[in-house]
Structure formats: structure tokens, C-alpha cells
Amino acid sequence: TLIATQSNLYSVQKNPNKPLNTSEKEVEQFIGICIYMSIYGLPRSRMYWNGNTRVEKVAHVMSRNRWEELKANLHFNNNDHMPLQNDPNKDRLFKIRPLVDALQNKFKNIPIEEQMLCVDEQIVPFKGTSLLKQYNPMKPHK
């Protein structure tokens, strides 16, 4: 509901004459398509709807134009409440803060048995820029 509401609000802020009018169900379909695309792995998103590379499981759920419209308007927080750039208490995750908070609350509700747990992760090299990136001298691939 939050994603649909904020995405609809953003689309009106961007262009009042062209509201997005999305729903929670449509946002779920959009996210499902994104997950499926990440697994299926075609090089360009438009290929999922094009003739000989068309993927019915994607194309049947949503049109390409609608998927691109949702992608362009996807928002999690109201830009009108964004702190100023020079604010020393600025939240770097402001744009996705509601999503982060919702996920943290869900993770807290996962039952954990009283036993030793081992979590292993793959550390992936990252060459891009991010204010959230941290230097880890123990990282195997830099």
C-alpha cells in the first residue's frame, strides 16, 4: 500500500495531468516481474516483450509501457518532506527509509531458535560510487 500510495503521489507531483493510478496488486506484479527478470537474465528489459525473445510469463502479466511507467514513478517516500542537502542530520536513506523500516520490523518478527547460527555471504566487488559504501580491509576481492 505504501509503495502504491507514494508512487501515485510522485506521479502527480511530476505531472498532475498524468496520474499513475496504480494499486497494491499492480505493484506486487511489478516487483514479481523485476525478480523474474533478475533470474531469467535477458540483457535488456524491452526484450521480455519483443517478438522472438518475448517471455509470456512477463508479457502476459503487464504491458511493456505500463511496466516502464511504474519503473519511472516507483517511490517509497514523499519528496516534499526530503531534508535539505546541507542539513547535518540528513538521512542518506530518506528515499527508501519507509521500506528499510518495514523490512527491519518484519525481520525482528522472524523466530530464532536458541542455537548457534552461521550466516555466510558472498562479498561482491563493487566499482561504483555510494555514500553508504564502507571500506573492508578483509574483503577478498577489492
Automatic annotation (TrEMBL):
<dbReference type="InterPro" id="IPR029526">
    <property type="entry name" value="PGBD"/>
</dbReference>
<protein>
    <recommendedName>
        <fullName>PiggyBac transposable element-derived protein domain-containing protein</fullName>
    </recommendedName>
</protein>
<dbReference type="Pfam" id="PF13843">
    <property type="entry name" value="DDE_Tnp_1_7"/>
</dbReference>
<feature type="domain" description="PiggyBac transposable element-derived protein">
    <location>
        <begin position="2"/>
        <end position="142"/>
    </location>
</feature>
